Amino acid sequence: MKLSIIVPCYNEEEMVSIFYDTIIEELKKIKINYELIFVNDGSKDKTLDELRKICKKNKKVYVIDLSRNFNKEAAMLAGLEYSTGDYVVVMDADLQDPPNLLREMIKILDTKEYDSVATYRINRKGEPPIRTFFARSFYKLINKMTKVEIVDGARDYRMMTRSMVDSLLKLQEYHRFSKGLFVWVGFKTKYLGYENIERPAGKTKWSFWKLFSYAIEGIVSFTTFPLRIATFSGILISLIAFIYLLYIFVNTLFYGNPVAGWASLACIILFLGGIQLLSIGIIGEYLARTYGEVKRRPVYIIKEVINDDKKN
Ligand code: UDP
Ligand code: MG
Fold first, then answer.
1. By CB distance 3.0 to 4.6 Å, which of 23, 123, 154, 159 could disulfide with 105?
2. Is the dihedral of CA 159, 161, 164, 168 positive or negative?
3. What is the band of 311 on the pLDDT scale with cuts at 50, 70, 90?
């Protein structure tokens, strides 16, 4: 029985050695065979040097060095593809995913009742309230619009069986929204909740805009519902326009009042202009994704694997 631990790292020079020490301590307690796969996602600081040092100490540590920063989704995929364990877990390097849950996760998978153990934060302590508000709204929206149920506060911290990982790897899409993909592949998942833990060092890589486009990515990846909105608003506005047209027609013909409502005209033009731009934008989002997919570029490029002993 082997556990693969995948850790995507981007500019985590302060965290990797702290993370390594903590996880090794935990693994010693659990007494399980393991492989630790760090994916260096094009860090611009000394993360790679730190990782090299760890590799020298421990042959069970592998480092996949990507050729540039691809994003966490790509880094996770690189790790998943490289992993060979019977159980596979994805963890952040910043210790916000508590390693002491590993033992419980393994126990749950050992019962064979579940194929995956996922985690979510039960609170968002230490996060700006405005971000919490938007995050909450996002989960409500995506769960209303799509068929995949994503738990509010779901983390990427999740342990899966080999068969679930293999299914995930069959999804070769370029625009990856893992939180949704994990749910999409099905399998039985148990959710564990834990209190939010603040980063011991370094800082979050997520700016507000990055999160915003991630949210759009999530919605566009899993539903074409927004396109429907464009269709529906088109139908609705056409109907209203038709009724209004009749009204103007009658008004002019029978009551002879040809020049009326400059203000209403201006409103109508602006409103329609807005709706049209919005609809084009929505179509554009889907078209751009389609363009991205048909190019069939690889999701990530590996520069080097340190400690590599697997024949790929
Ligand atoms: N990460 C990555 N590539 C990126 C951004 C982040 O591999 O482009 C890694 C990062 O090093 C960390 C994990 O993804 O291990 C989560 O990032 P972060 O802690 O910044 O996110 P948060 O916990 O704030 O959601
Ligand atoms: Mg974090």
1. 159
2. positive
3. low
Distance between CA atoms of 146 and 124, rounded to whole angstroms?
Answer: 24
The structural domains of the chain, with segments of one domain joined by +, span 2-222+298-311, 225-294
| Residues, CB within 5 angstroms of ligand 2 (ion) | 92, 94, 96
Q: CB count, 10 Å around CB of 175? A: 15
Cβ contact 9:16 at 8 Å: yes
Ligand 1 pocket at CB < 6 A: 8-10, 12, 41, 69, 71-72, 75, 92-94, 96, 204-206
Q: CA triplet 52, 53, 57: central angle to 5 degrees?
A: 115
Question: Which of 18, 67, 92 to mutate for ligand 1's pocket (most ligand atoms within 8 Å of CB)?
Answer: 92
Read off the pTM: 0.82
Q: For position 68, what pLDDT does the model report?
A: 93
Pick the CATH number of 2-222+298-311 from 3.60.21.10, 3.40.50.720, 3.40.1350.10, 3.90.550.10: 3.90.550.10
Q: How confident is the model at residue 258 (pLDDT cuts 50, 70, 90)?
A: low
Distance (Å, rounded) from C-alpha 274 to C-alpha 295?
A: 31
Give distance in angstroms: CA of 179 to centre of ligand 2. 15
Encoding tokens for residue 106?
Answer: 């393994």
Cβ neighbours for 111, distance < 8 A, ≥ 6 positions apart: none
Q: Are 8 and 93 in contact (CB under 8 A)?
A: yes
Residue 128: CA count within 13 A, CB half-sphere:
7
